[in-house]
Amino acid sequence: MKRNLLITCVMLLFAVVSMAQNKITVSGVVTDKTGETVIGASVLVKGQENMGTITDIDGKYQIPGVPANATLIFSYIGMKEQEVALNGRSTVNLMMEEDSQLIEEVVVVGYGSAKKRDLTGSIVTVKAAEIASKPSTNPLASIQGKVAGVQVINTGRAGQDPEIRVRGTNSINGYTPLYVVDGLFTDNINYLNTADIESMEILKDPSSLAIFGVRGANGVIIITTKKAKEGKTQVSINGSVGWKKVTDRVSLTNAEQFKMLYNEQRMNQGGDPYDYTVWNADTDWQDEMFQTGFLTNNTVSITASGDRSKFYLGLGYVMEEGSIKSEKLNKFTVNLHSEHKVTDFLRFGFQVNGVRALYPDAKGVGSALKAAPIAPVYDTESGLLHTLPDFQRAQVWNPMIEPVLRGAHNKSANYRMAGNIYGELDLMKNLTFKATFSLDYASSQSRSYSPLIYVYNPDVEGGKERLTDKESISQSKSTSMAAQSDYVLTYINQFGDHGLTLTAGLTTNYNEYSDLSGGRSQLPGYGVSIGEDIDKWWITMIDDATSATNGGSQYKRFTMSYLFRALYNYKNRYLLNASYRRDGSSVFKRTGNTWDNFYSFGAGWVMSEEAFMKKQNVIDYLKLKGSWGVLGSQNTGGSHYPAYPNITSSGSAVFGDNVIAGKGPDKLISQTLGWERNYSWEVGFDMHLLDGRMQISPVYYNKTTKDLLTSVPGLSGTVPALQNTGEIRNRGFELAASWSDKIGENWRYGVSANLTTIDNEVVSLISKDYSIINGVSRVSEGYPIGYFYGYKVAGVYQNETDIETSAPNQVASVKPGDLKFADVNGDGIISEKDRTMIGNPTPDFTYGFSVNLGYKNFDLSVDMMGVYGNEVYRNWDSSAYAQFNYRIGHLNRWHGEGTSNWDPILDPSRSVNLEASSYYVEDGSFFRIRNIELGYTFDPRLLNRIKLQSLRIYGNVQNPKTWSRNTGYTPEVGGSATAFGVDGGGYPMPVVYTLGFNLSF
Q1: Separation of alpha carbons 793 and 903, rounded Å
Q2: Which listed site, 118, 365, 408, 475, has its alpha carbon 20 to 30 Å from 72?
Q3: Separation between Cα atoms, residue 625 and residue 638, nearest integer Å
Q4: 710-746 burial by CB neighbour count: b if 16+ within 10 A, else e?
Q5: pLDDT at 131
Q6: Residue 718 — pLDDT band, cuts 50, 70, 90?
Q7: CA 278, CA 271: separation in Å to the nearest integer?
Q8: What are the pLDDT digits (tens) for 150-194?
Q9: Torsion of CA 838, 841, 847, 848, to 10 degrees
């Protein structure tokens, strides 16, 4: 027995010694508890300071020559340090735990990804769960009110894209941010299905934007679509159904009120009361035009993986009816991703997103606001739509003509496919090369038929009247293509306390676009009758070539760029970021400004890692940060070839008996013409308190766009010149804050809020006397962009004495009941010199607020948002040429001394009351409950019994209530860079109710 025991001990000792001498290569993946890979984690061999590495961009590590019995030490700032004994294993995967409740978030940045903690700028991440269940066909609509510094202007129209302005309007030539979908530069993301989006990063600061060069000044939104993941095969099904209804109507007069006001107006003009004998209806045209629209959104996805390959497929279908009868959207989407690991150091893959969209034949609501309520919808005997009274029928048709007789008469089909193929090679231990080739191809075609319109008119013999002389057909087709190639090197390494990430690359981008359009028309009785036969809605069906019209446009553009970025940290405490990009573009090649340079610098200090911060337990994490940079703007003054003038007609000359038409350039081009440049900086801090329950991130930003592409007026008789001149500044504060906690074991709650102030000013623009005029909107030096220009109303003239004692009005003759304008310049008279800023469409601040509650498996979320301090210009209820229905506010009109000191007399012949003035300016501030959602997640233990992985059901209400002071449908009124906030009637914002489920197995 003793001999056997001795032999056993000797063998065990021999095994231990052999294991200690055996060298192996150890590798693995480091993740956090959310499944995200941990980049830059330290992996050291215990007791051997010179043996170790850090995890790469995919969270992977590899250490050769490690004793088989060694112990690995895993560490990362903010995470608990962990020791793992190998015991002969060559593969060790580890899930790290937070040292506090601070989660180390990985964000996608330009040409790569990084830990948000290592960055010095303002990047906000919106996860898929925050937008997936919202009933919006465009994913951008769902981020409204969620991100500080981002103003989203939505419309209620099915399929229409929202307007996005990041930190204000930066240029007179555009405001649209750059969208980057899986690395591909694009101008919109309406081809994506919300369910296919993994995350959305909004980049706002110069530190993160400079690497996008000439495309970065208006902000960048990076979208990462869902990709294949490692693990077992999983099938997910998401479905929702719902309905929507317009609840906020414009308050207009009914038939009785209209008759009273219109008769009064006629008497004010010296006429007799109107004869309403055949006009005794009481029609609510909004009720007639609007419908309860139904919608459904369904997606199916499958992801699977093997030892070396991963696969993801997502299919989606969206149907949404519009708020106006006959409007309907259909959208089919596909998302396909596959990746294959050839070897441990070589990977290939591809990503494709496609869509087939049938957009609605969009209709307007203007006629429903203007049509008199005294007209019936139909003539009961003939069944024809009824015409309107003679005082408006020439300018306003029966509102139901568009949805009933012309509805769904524009057939459009839009196809788009965008994707990439890529290869990734690990050249060295810490060096990776990735090549990506992307293509975005879109084709859109439409054909529309305008029929002969017949209505019933009681004033014509027989009652039947034809409003159109001809039937017509038009067709159009457009194609666009963007081809992009990216070649990027990424180096990640840790040198003791020094962490370094370097990115360098070459990228090219080619864009081309072309469109053609044509149309023909014919008189009734000639040629082939078209009618409602859709198969005949082609221009070839009309053989009258003399009626043919045509048009077209096209452009091409090419850009090549070099880029570089360095992210450095010392002890994960002191941070330095630097970016550089050199862009070469075909746009300004003619003026010699093909190339331009853009760059930024950022610094950060993680103060919470200092020794003096360890003695307190309130602040868990505190990072001071700031950045400065020069960004580019892709705005080119509305022209794809700004360095080349257009050749247009320019008078004529007589030579003998011949008149020769002259041709000449429409503008002179500055020989130094180049890109607009944005000089931007920000400072702020990120702070987490009370065991991570509270987070605060305030930032001050300042953005100044210089060298605006501006059309400079020429001298008398000469054409204008296009030059780089002018400057616009946006500055303000952003604040994002949140709190989350638990109450006992079953209750949880969270509150988050954001606030953004915007101070916009045109610092310079040619001269103080120069303005860019677009209707009531103006751009002038010293004022906010797109401000409203007109007279300030001081009241209403009550009597002749009031007129005599007031400053003489040289704008127009005035009588009692007319608007009284203020003498702004104090010269004692009312003239055009008294016009001034009467409103600002840019809000003083925007805000959002969210509340999340949870009890066991139930969850409730409420999202709210609003804007404050902006104005809206009402432009839909007045005309000198036609009589419209009245706003309900006209019941408070002036109709005698002392009856009103704001609403003027009803008399459209008095031109002074139609001048642009503060009478038409309304408060654009509003507060809206954006979403209310209640959900229930089933217990996984129950689902396992029926072979399901997860199941959640929910109900959502979108836009249930809006508090506003404007008289239109919605205070959200968009527009162009220089003219926005002008309410021309708009489109109503409906309340949307949906019920849905998320199922996976």
Answers
A1: 10
A2: 118
A3: 37
A4: bbbeeeeeebebbbbbbbbbbbbbbbbbbeeeeeeee
A5: 87
A6: low
A7: 19
A8: 999 998 898 889 999 999 999 999 899 999 999 999 988 999 999
A9: 130
Question: Which residue in 207, 214, 178, 44 sits closest to 116, CA to CA?
Answer: 207
How far is it, in rounded angstroms, from Cα 974 to Cα 181? 25
pLDDT, tens digit (0-9, with 9 covering 90-100), for 193-239: 998 998 899 999 999 999 998 888 899 999 999 887 777 788 999 99
H/E element, 337: strand 328-343
Range with the lowest mean pLDDT among 351-355, 472-476, 661-665? 661-665
Pairing of strands 676-689, 619-633: antiparallel
Q: Could you read off the pLDDT of 874-907 as tens digits, one per residue?
A: 999 888 888 999 999 999 999 999 999 999 999 9
> Rounded CA gap, 618 and 172, in Å?
46
The residue type at 264: E
Pairing mode, strands 721-724 and 668-669: parallel
| Torsional sign, CA 127, 132, 134, 135 | positive
Closest CA to 297 of 283, 314, 309, 284: 314
Residue 766 burial by CB count (10 A; 0-12/13-18/19+): exposed, middle or buried?
Answer: middle
- 496 burial class (0-12, 13-18, 19+ CB within 10 angstroms)? exposed
- Compute the Cα dihedral for 814, 819, 825, 831 and give only its sign: negative
Provide the residue type at 606 as one letter.
V
Residues composing the chain:
1001
Contact 73, 44 (CB under 8 A): yes
The answer to whether the beta carbons of residues 710 and 725 sit under 8 Å apart is yes
The CB density around residue 550, as the number of other CB atoms within 10 Å, is: 11
Nearest to 409 by CA among 361, 453, 374: 361
Closest CA to 900 of 797, 761, 808: 797
Q: Where are the alpha helices (DSSP H) in 94-144?
A: 128-131
CA distance 333 to 337: 14
DSSP-assigned letters across all residues of 147-205: STTEEEE--SSTTPPPEEEESS---TT--PPEEEETTEEES--TTS-GGGEEEEEEE-S
Q: What angle is formed at CA 655 by the lines to CA 654 and CA 661, rounded to 5 degrees?
A: 50
Give, as one character, the DSSP assignment of residue 980: B
Cα gap 108→117, rounded to integer Å: 13
Q: Which of 546, 527, 530, 547 is nearest to 538 (CA)?
A: 530
Q: Tokens standing for 115?
A: 């830990």
> Is 22 strand, coil or helix?
coil
Q: Rounded to an integer, what is the distance from CA 617 to the centroid of its chain?
A: 40
Instruction: Give yes or no for residue 13 having a pLDDT over 50.
Output: no
Phi and psi dihedrals of 367, rounded to 5?
-65, -30
Measured between alpha carbons, how far is residue 585 from residues 375, 617, 631, 674, 931 in Å? 59, 53, 15, 10, 43
* Amino acid sitting at position 613: M
- Residues in CB range of 200: below 8 A, 6 or more apart: 125, 126, 131, 139, 143, 221, 222, 223, 224
Confidence of residue 102 (pLDDT cuts 50, 70, 90): very low
Question: What pLDDT does residue 15 have?
Answer: 43
Residues with Cβ < 8 Å from 241, sequence gap 6 or more?
A: 294, 295, 296, 994, 995, 996
- B/e letters for 252-273, b = 16+ CB within 10 Å, e = fewer, are bbebebbbebbbbbbebeeeee
Q: Does residue 539 contact residue 519 with C-beta atoms inside 8 Å?
A: yes
CA distances from 516 to 534, 550, 923 (A): 21, 7, 42
